[in-house]
Design brief:
The chain is of the alpha+beta class and 146 residues long. Among the domains are: 13-45, no CATH class; 68-124, no CATH class. The chain is built from 5 helices and 5 strands. Strand 2 and strand 3 form a beta hairpin. It starts with 12 loop residues before the first strand and ends in a 22-residue tail after the last helix.
Length: 146
C-alpha cells in the first residue's frame, strides 16, 4: 500500500520528453518510475505570477451544489472503508468527491473497534496533534431527545 509519507521530496528527473503520439509530457525519474502529464493538465496547473490571476480553481472546476436530492436514497456518495485503505483508485475517487465534487461522502463498513479514523487519516497523509488530542471523536447517538 502506498503512503504519501513515503514520497521522496528530493527526487530529480533523469529525462523529460514530449510524447507527440499521446500529446503528453513523459518524465523519467531517478528511482525508475515514469510520470505522464497532459498538456491541458500542465496548462491548467501552471505557475502564474502574482497579479496575473489564477484559474477558476482546481477545486471549483467540477463542484456540484447539493440540495434535497442528495438526501434521497442512493444519491449520497458512498465508499467502503477497507477499499479506501487498500485501493489507491478508490482513495483518489473519495478525495476528489470530498474536495472537488460534493464535499461530503459516507464511509460504510468501518470496523467496530475504536480509533479507525486515524487509520484512514494515516492513509491520506500526516495527522497533526492539536492541544486536545490527535483526532476528536464524533459519536452519533440515535433517538436521543433534546
Amino acid at each position: 500500500m502506498y503512503s504519501p509519507k513515503e514520497v521522496n521530496l528530493d527526487i530529480t528527473a533523469e529525462s523529460a520528453v514530449w510524447n507527440t503520439e499521446d500529446d503528453q509530457l513523459e518524465v523519467n525519474w531517478e528511482d525508475g518510475h515514469t510520470s505522464q502529464y497532459s498538456f491541458e493538465w500542465l496548462k491548467y496547473l501552471r505557475y502564474r505570477p502574482p497579479g496575473e490571476g489564477q484559474p477558476d480553481g482546481v477545486l471549483k472546476k467540477g463542484i456540484k451544489l447539493w440540495g434535497q436530492e442528495l438526501s434521497e436514497e442512493g444519491n449520497l456518495p458512498t465508499f467502503q472503508f477497507q477499499k479506501l485503505l487498500n485501493d489507491d483508485q478508490e482513495l483518489y475517487k473519495w478525495l476528489v468527491t470530498l474536495e472537488i465534487e460534493t464535499g461530503i461522502a459516507k464511509i460504510e463498513n468501518a470496523p467496530k473497534e475504536g480509533n479507525q479514523l486515524p487509520v484512514l487519516g494515516e492513509r491520506v497523509g500526516y495527522l497533526m496533534r492539536i492541544c486536545y488530542r490527535l483526532v476528536s471523536l464524533l459519536m452519533l447517538t440515535p433517538l436521543v431527545s433534546q
